């Protein structure tokens, strides 16, 4: 196996940082383990690197022998050394991303960074798009990102925070104006941080609770989102004003973050109504804290005196009135002519009492009105067109985050609702056994209940614990609406939606809690969106028919009218890929969107597609802007909603600069695509019928190939469970949610995250690429015209290009030589050789056809920075993989559990995850 890559000058500073951090790590290894530890790590590293550059069987055997002969104490230190090295590389690469962005900003004005806000605005200007068109698109633009607690972040929060501090030190070291003393101080700090990283336990010793996960999610709101989101809006507004100066631009709040953490009940018994309530309280607590911090800073800045500037009569009168109502004498600001400080003192007092007493603000809208009063007064004495940015930003923050901080989605499995409805309807003698009714009978029964204004639940009824819990979920939502506002919980997601009745059941439960009401005059009140989650291949195919059934029901259409005739639909990328392979799943997802979009258009119903993407390629992962571009163009006009899961949060949002870059890429992409759509509503030039026909044919062949292995090969599950660290992954304390939906050893009940995680660890990455090659190659081999068609699709169709690029990335991260090591874990060598032979054959076939389609000589030639990063990491991941295989063999041979061995295995899992920057 020979690999080569060319480095480019732009990566020189990165390589310098990596080398420097590696040197520091070497010093620490000597300090804690002596030269013997450093020499052993170096020997393994050099051998692995040599093998990567030019495979040699003798060196390969020597490397394996070195690993097998490692004594346990030394072995653990070696594992930690390689793992820590990846955390250092991750910090260095994050800083390099920030460095490259700053280099663009410091260059000549004619050079604009691709996919930036500036590039999007210049594109609109160059294409002579009118201001009316741009403003119209802005008014409907919508991008919602929803953070989830899916257990895919293997790195502890304390380690992530050390990484961030290291990255910030590297950033400061780039300053050419540093004095010798300042540089020495930073270098000492860097050594200290790397030392602390080495001395920190990288494994969690218990599973996080849901509230631990809530706190982790809130960390990103506190550290990043609160600052970056207003900046994106402000920079877009200022950029438009600069390029289109004759128009008074108003950029609505199109970019928001929501959350599932504390509301996602699907398969997680730990998410109780009480936990959901505590989550909402924590969210409000953080929002109020951030506003108080901003206002205390504003109070220091707003020292203007009524003897120096003109103050609005409105503000003066408002302050005098509010001081009498809300402030005791000891809380008043006693410098009478500092009117702004007097007003801020009132606001701070009222913020402190939110949710506690009558003097507290009842809503964020009341706070906004006070801020608008200040803003109108400031306009009287500020220079023309020079708004006070601090105040403007605070107003935008309150508009974006309110008192609820983030809308919390509630999610639950359809079977849970059906079980509760079955018991309730039996108790009130509406249906003896609702769950056994036909779908048509279910719909008639539910429609009848929804059309009856009388409540269904009986007082003091002795329901089962499960049904009582389900009822409490909905009464908690009602209480949240009354306490935190309607925006606190807007959407209820139904996992495993397989029929129209699955959605109506939720409406019935909402009706019983008073969230959905039918008044005596026939009018409807509905304060909760109900969204299906289409996950499996079968559900995606059935999706259009399910929704059309609902759109034809008066009771459901009346519900939709309350929500602006708009329906949210969530698409699951994980289970579809697990059922049918990544290529088929992605095509079925794309096709389902098109079919539902066109069907809904006939009913004059707007749609918002919610993309349940994971961080890994096997679960729909990839750059945020590329995810947006890969959707059918005609669906973008209704807005985009995407999950941001686990490791994605730290990768994208740990640093403000990287968070800004990721969000501006998404904003730029969505803005330009939406404007193009408004200019040509059909977008026919972006997709040809023959392309869709080709994908249909390719998908069918790929699905057959995938299922022939995963579902039809009787030995596949044996191979999967033995040739991957699946069971060991289950011991890693990275999430509050169980690994399986039910306590059964069925493939169907295994969650997609451990499915992907285990394959990633073993470097086979089957969920991210397997069977795609057979589908593509069989189509291309039929004629030369077919191959040319695929090449043109790659150049002209964003969906297909994204698919091919992600497949290339998956093959790049997979490694057949390393993966072969894991076949030694399979007890039946015949099974191991046969199935692994199948995998190798498909890998080579996939690689060959991808290169033909893309025109690249090697994988990822079109993205040299990513390619270089993968090559940089591979020689250091390999020893961890070899160590993992040997440790698992030893662990599985033990008759009694061996905690020390398990800890070492978990350390390799954590290290490989850090090295590949992927888990599940």
TrEMBL record:
Q: Catalysed reaction per UniProt? A: oxaloacetate + phosphate = phosphoenolpyruvate + hydrogencarbonate
Per the Swiss-Prot or TrEMBL record, the active site comprises 150, 578
Q: What does this protein do?
A: Forms oxaloacetate, a four-carbon dicarboxylic acid source for the tricarboxylic acid cycle.
Q: Which UniProt keywords apply?
A: Carbon dioxide fixation, Lyase, Magnesium
Instruction: State the Gene3D superfamilies in the record.
Output: Phosphoenolpyruvate/pyruvate domain
One short Pfam name that applies is PEPcase
Give the gene that encodes this protein.
ppc
Q: Which cofactor does it need?
A: Mg(2+)
What taxonomic lineage is listed for the species of origin? Bacteria, Bacillati, Bacillota, Bacilli, Bacillales
What GO molecular function annotations does the UniProt record carry, in alphabetical order?
phosphoenolpyruvate carboxylase activity
UniProt lists the family membership as follows: Belongs to the PEPCase type 1 family.
Subunit organization? Homotetramer.
Q: What is its EC number?
A: 4.1.1.31
Q: What is this protein called?
A: Phosphoenolpyruvate carboxylase
């Amino acid at each position: 196996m020979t690999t080569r890559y060319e480095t480019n000058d732009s990566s020189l500073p990165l390589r310098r940082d990596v080398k420097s951090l590696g040197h520091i790590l070497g010093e620490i290894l000597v300090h804690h383990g002596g030269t013997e530890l450093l020499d052993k790590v170096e020997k393994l590293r050099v051998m692995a690197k040599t093998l990567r550059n030019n495979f040699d069987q003798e060196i390969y055997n020597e490397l394996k022998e070195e690993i097998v002969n490692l004594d346990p104490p030394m072995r653990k230190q070696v594992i930690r050394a390689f793992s820590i090295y990846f955390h250092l590389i991750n910090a260095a690469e994050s800083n390099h991303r920030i460095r490259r962005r700053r280099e663009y900003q410091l260059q000549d004005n004619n050079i604009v960074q691709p996919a930036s806000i500036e590039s999007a605005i210049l594109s609109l200007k160059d294409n002579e798009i009118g201001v009316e068109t741009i403003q119209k698109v802005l008014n409907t633009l919508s991008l919602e990102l929803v953070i989830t607690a899916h257990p895919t972040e293997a790195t502890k929060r304390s380690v992530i925070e050390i990484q961030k501090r290291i990255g910030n030190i590297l950033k400061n070291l780039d300053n050419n104006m540093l004095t010798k003393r300042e540089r020495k101080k930073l270098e000492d700090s860097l050594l200290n941080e790397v030392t602390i990283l080495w001395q920190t336990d990288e494994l969690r010793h218990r599973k996080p609770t849901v509230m631990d996960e809530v706190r982790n999610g809130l960390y990103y709101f506190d550290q990043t989102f609160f600052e970056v989101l207003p900046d994106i809006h402000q920079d877009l507004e200022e950029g438009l004003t600069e390029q289109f100066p004759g128009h008074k631009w108003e950029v609505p709040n199109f970019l928001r973050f929501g959350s599932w953490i504390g509301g996602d009940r699907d398969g997680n018994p730990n998410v109780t109504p009480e936990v959901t309530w505590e989550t909402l309280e924590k969210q409000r607590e953080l929002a109020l804290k951030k506003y108080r911090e901003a206002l205390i800073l504003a109070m220091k800045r707003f020292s203007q005196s009524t003897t120096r500037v003109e103050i609005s009569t409105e503000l003066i009168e408002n302050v005098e009135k509010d001081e009498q109502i809300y402030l005791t004498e000891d809380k008043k600001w006693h410098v009478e002519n500092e009117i702004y400080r007097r007003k801020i003192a009132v606001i701070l007092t009222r913020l402190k009492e939110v949710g506690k007493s009558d003097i507290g603000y009842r809503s964020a809208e009341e706070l906004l009105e006070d801020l608008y009063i200040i803003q109108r007064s400031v306009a009287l004495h500020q220079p023309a067109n020079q708004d006070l940015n601090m105040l403007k930003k605070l107003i935008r923050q309150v508009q974006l985050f309110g008192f609820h901080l983030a809308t919390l989605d509630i999610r639950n499995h359809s079977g849970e609702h059906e079980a509760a409805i079955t018991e309730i309807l039996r108790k009130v003698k509406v249906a003896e056994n609702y769950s056994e009714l036909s779908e048509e009978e279910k719909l008639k029964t539910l429609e009848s209940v929804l059309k009856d204004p009388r409540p269904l639940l009986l007082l003091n009824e002795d329901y089962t614990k499960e049904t009582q819990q389900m009822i409490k979920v909905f009464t908690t939502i009602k209480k949240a609406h009354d306490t935190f506002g309607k925006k606190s919980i807007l959407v209820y997601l139904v996992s495993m939606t397989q029929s129209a009745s699955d959605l109506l059941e939720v409406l019935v439960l909402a009706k019983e809690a008073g969230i959905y009401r039918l008044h005596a005059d026939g009018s409807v009140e509905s304060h909760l969106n109900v969204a299906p989650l289409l996950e499996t291949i079968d559900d995606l195919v059935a999706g259009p028919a399910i929704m059309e059934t609902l759109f034809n029901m008066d009771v459901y259409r009346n519900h939709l009218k309350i929500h602006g005739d708009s329906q949210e639909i969530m698409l699951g990328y994980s289970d579809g890929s697990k059922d049918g392979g990544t290529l088929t799943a992605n095509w079925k997802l794309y096709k389902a969107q098109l079919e539902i979009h066109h069907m809904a258009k006939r009913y004059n119903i707007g749609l918002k597609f919610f993309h349940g993407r994971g961080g890994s390629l096997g679960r729909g992962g990839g750059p945020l802007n590329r995810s947006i571009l890969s959707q059918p163009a005609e669906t973008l006009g209704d807005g985009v909603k995407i999950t941001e899961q686990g490791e994605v949060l730290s990768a994208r949002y740990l640093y403000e600069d990287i968070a800004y870059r990721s969000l501006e890429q998404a904003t730029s992409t969505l803005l330009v695509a939406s404007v193009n759509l408004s200019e040509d509503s059909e977008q026919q030039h972006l997709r040809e019928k023959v392309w869709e026909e080709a994908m249909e044919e390719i998908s069918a062949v790929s699905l057959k190939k995938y299922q022939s292995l995963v579902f039809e090969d009787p030995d596949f599950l044996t191979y999967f469970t033995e040739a991957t660290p699946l069971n060991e992954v289950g011991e890693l304390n990275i999430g509050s949610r169980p690994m399986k939906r039910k306590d059964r050893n069925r493939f169907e009940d295994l969650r997609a995250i451990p499915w992907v995680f285990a394959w990633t660890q073993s470097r086979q990455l089957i969920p991210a690429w397997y069977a795609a090659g057979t589908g593509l190659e069989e189509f291309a081999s039929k004629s030369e015209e077919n191959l040319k068609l695929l090449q043109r699709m790659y150049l002209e169709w964003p969906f297909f290009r994204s698919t091919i690029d992600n497949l290339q990335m998956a093959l790049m991260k997979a490694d057949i030589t390393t993966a072969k090591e894991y076949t030694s874990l399979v007890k039946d060598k015949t099974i191991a050789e046969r199935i692994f032979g199948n995998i190798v054959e498909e890998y080579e076939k996939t690689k060959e056809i991808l290169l033909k389609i893309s025109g690249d000589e090697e994988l990822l030639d079109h993205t040299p920075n990513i390619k270089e990063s993968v090559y940089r990491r591979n020689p250091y991941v390999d020893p961890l993989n070899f160590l993992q295989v040997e440790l698992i063999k030893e662990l599985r041979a033990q008759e009694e559990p061996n905690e020390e061995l398990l800890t070492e295995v978990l350390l390799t899992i954590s290290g490989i995850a850090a090295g590949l920057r992927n888990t599940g």
